Amino acid sequence: AGNPVTVAERGGYYVVAAADAVKDQSVYASLTDGTVATAATGQTMAGYVETIWKVAAPAPAGEPIPINTWR
Hints:
The protein has no helices and five strands. The protein is mostly beta strands. Strands 1-5-4-2-3 form a five-stranded antiparallel sheet, with no helix packed on it. β4 (48-55) and β5 (64-68) form a beta hairpin.
């Protein structure tokens, strides 16, 4: 059951988050459903884990957010 996924370790991609994203925020991944959230580096978010990905450019909630690992 479920859908196939592509596992990306490095690069540049677009994601959609439920809140506004600010350039250089960290990207957090949900441990339960894979959704993403953005917040300042080092934050503790229940049910999320901080990743190596960073927001590359600001974007409003619900719109594609460019993220990358090229920092």
